[in-house]
Each structure stands twice: as C-alpha cells, then as structure tokens.
Amino acid sequence: MSLISEQQIQQFHEEGYFVTPPMWTKAELQAVSDEFDRLHDEYIGSVAAMDQIDEKTRDLAKNRPFIGAVHTSSDLLCEFVKSPIYLEACLKLIGPDADLYYNQAVIKPPLHGQAFGWHQDSGYQPTTPLEYITCWTAISRAFVDNGCIWVIPGSQKGGLRTHRFNEQGQSKDAVPDNENEAIPVEMEPGQVAVFSSLILHKSGPNTSREIRKGYVPQYHVPGVVIAESKKIFGDVYPVLRDGRRADVPVPEPIRRQQGLNR
Ligand SMILES: O=C(O)CCC(=O)C(=O)O
Description:
By secondary structure, this protein is an alpha+beta fold. The protein has a single domain (about 10-240), classed as Jelly Rolls (Sandwich), CATH 2.60.120.620. The protein has helices at about 5-15, 25-50, 55-65, 75-80, 85-95, 120-125; strands spanning about 15-20, 65-70, 100-110, 115-120, 125-130, 135-140, 150, 165, 170-175, 185, 190-195, 200-205, 210-220, 225, 235-240, 245. The protein binds 2-oxoglutaric acid.
C-alpha cells in the first residue's frame, strides 16, 4: 500500500515539501518520546562532564539540544529510522538505493526552547550530489507557540544560498528575500514534513508550556561526498538497497553533538 500520493510528490517538486498524516500509533510515539527524554538527560550529563564547559554550551544542551546520530545510541531509533514512510520517501524521491545521511533528536523545552534561524539543510555542508531529503517528524505536537518549523514554499528552486554563522555562532543562517511568504507547518504527533534540503526553513522559540519534540532523519544517495574535499560524509548507514529495506548491523556510536556540521 502506498503511503505517499502522486499529488504529494508533485507538491514536493513544486513547493519543496509535503506533510503526511500521522504515521505511527500513540504507543509507538510514546516509546520514541520516552527515548528522547533518556537521550536528553544523557546528553545534558555528558556536556556537564566536559572540561571547561561554558555557560552558552550548557544552555544549548538544555534548551536547544540537537542530539546527533541517535541511531547509534538507541536500538529503538535505529529501527524507527527505517519506518515504512521514510523508506517510501527515499524510494520515490532519491531512488532504489538510499542511506541515512544524518539524524537528530531536536527538543524545545517549554518556555525556554530557542529559535533556529532561516537556512537550507544543504547550506551546512554542501555535498555532491547536493540535494537530499529531510523527514521532520513531530513526536509531540508542533505549533507556532511551541516552536514549529516554518518553510518558504518554492524556495528550493533558487539553488544554494550563502550561509553565515549567526552572531552567537549557534547556527548557520541564510537571508531569505521573500520572508513574507513563509508559512508555519503545524503538526500533530506522528505527522512527517518531507522536504528538500534546499528549501528555506526555520523554527520559532517555544513560548508555550508544551514541550516540542522533533525527530529529524535525513536521507541521501549512497557514496555522498563533501563537495569541496570529496571525502565520504554523513551517517553512511544503508536503509534501502534495490528498492528494499537494507538490514545491516547496528553501527557503533559515532558522535553526539550540536547539529552544526551536517
Ligand atoms: O527542529 C528545529 O527546530 C529545526 C530543525 C532544523 O531546521 C534542522 O535540523 O535543519
């Protein structure tokens, strides 16, 4: 049974994104949500244990954590990352062979969760080939006041923009020329926003009393390299081969850090 319609694929090519209905049961989402809590506690602990840690890093770990490569620190997420909706998005938008390129748990705590500036995912680390897909997944509800993502439909057509570190050095931002066309992508738990790595998007602060949890796996063709150095890059974790789910051993933990280098 197909989970993604022709119309959604068309929307992806025209507007750079589409949003699915909820794809998991309440119990499955609760298990992922609990796993996020465990990973976040562990992450705060590991940052606190680092030598010469500054206040800014401590604050980011608490209030704007991007916990990377979670498929290597959670058996549950290593399985979740090959959910049917992700594999179908890979098949229809990448091709019969696809790898997990990057994945992170992104949490915005109530009242304190910080915003994340306008950017294209490809702007962080241009690759060859350039474009890949991001499957932003709402584990909790995501709405304007708890910091949902915003997109500028059609902005993927403008190619790769210049990205610069923001003043605080916390994100690499681009300047959109049509911010007035931005729309919030409000989602119920279990919905997935599938978007191009070239679409301009951002997320707002969490000013509400409700936590916002997003799981953000990204998929690319196998053998993707950094555009400049030509070095192999990314999680390099096969998810699809010859149009079928790839089953390879769970990788060793590789890294867990703020998501600034993808
Ligand atoms: O979830 C967020 O707040 C922003 C995530 C994002 O834009 C990204 O990881 O590229």
